[in-house]
Write a structure and sequence with these properties.
The protein is α+β, with helices and mostly antiparallel strands. The protein has nine helices and ten strands. The strands form two sheets. Strands 1, 3, 5, 6, 7 and 8 form a six-stranded mixed β-sheet that branches. A four-stranded antiparallel β-sheet has the order 4-2-9-10, with helices on both faces.
Length: 242
């Protein structure tokens, strides 16, 4: 069993977080503008219609794994004191927690269907990977994450095969090294100590082992309005051997 680093800090936070959270640092910048939007609602109404049409013709896509509900509930219980103590942090919705294997970015809508058959075949040909959530860490005192324990070597092999499928479909993307983690929250720009404090509080967390159930092709509504970012499955495929 190989363990991912579950505690401490890694450098170059914004750059690394793009590997594990598809909206990365840009999400921070856009959410920092939420207050301005609230105070200036005309800016929302004055959006460029050409830009809206362009967005309708594209979709922001990534491929990921999702922990089962029992594992997420366990971590959420460990985070409950932090939820109460740091309500101003931008906490990700529990239902959106995921481990990104490949972030493809903004794609033409027509580029998505060719991904489905080879990803389905890949999932069917592989058994589940046993993982667990463990500890916590942060990127640049800004992004809070939980570490990944268990068969991380198997996780890396799966990510390599997923990225190979994407390349064989002719989809260009930035093939960053995989740094397995599950993004939990972001600090506001005027409050970075909260992430460090919550990281320390997660140091002793060790979650139950779980087996990956499905490979998820996910879309994000990032950049498509003033509301919060949400994720939705375009499709998910059960791993073989389950």
């Amino acid at each position: 069993m190989t363990q991912a680093r579950g505690q401490g800090t890694e450098p170059a936070g914004d750059q690394q977080d793009q590997d594990g959270d598809p909206d990365g640092a840009q999400q921070d910048r856009d959410r920092d503008r939420d207050t301005d939007r609230d105070q200036n609602p005309d800016r929302v109404r004055d959006r460029d219609p050409d830009r809206d049409r362009d967005r309708a013709a594209t979709v922001r896509v990534f491929i990921a794994l999702a922990p089962p509900d029992e594992a997420k509930d366990e971590l959420a219980a460990a985070l409950r004191p932090a939820y109460d103590a740091y309500p101003r942090m931008r906490w990700n919705r529990i239902e959106d927690w995921h481990i990104t294997l490949a972030f493809l970015g903004e794609l033409p809508v027509g580029a998505v269907p060719p991904l489905r058959p080879p990803l389905a075949d890949l999932a069917a040909s592989r058994g589940p990977v046993e993982l667990a959530l463990r500890g916590g860490g942060h990127f640049d005192e800004r992004v809070l994450w939980s570490g990944i324990d268990g068969d991380v070597d198997g996780l890396h092999r799966l990510a390599t095969d997923v990225r190979r499928v994407v390349k064989e479909c002719g989809i260009p993307f930035e093939d960053r090294p995989l740094r397995p983690h599950l993004t939990l929250a972001r600090a506001r720009r005027d409050d970075r100590s909260s992430v460090v404090d919550v990281t320390a509080g997660l140091a002793g967390f060790t979650g139950r082992p779980w087996r990956t159930e499905r490979l998820h092709l996910v879309a994000s509504d990032f950049g498509r309005g003033p509301g919060p970012i949400r994720y939705r499955d375009l499709e998910a495929w059960t791993f073989g051997g389950r």
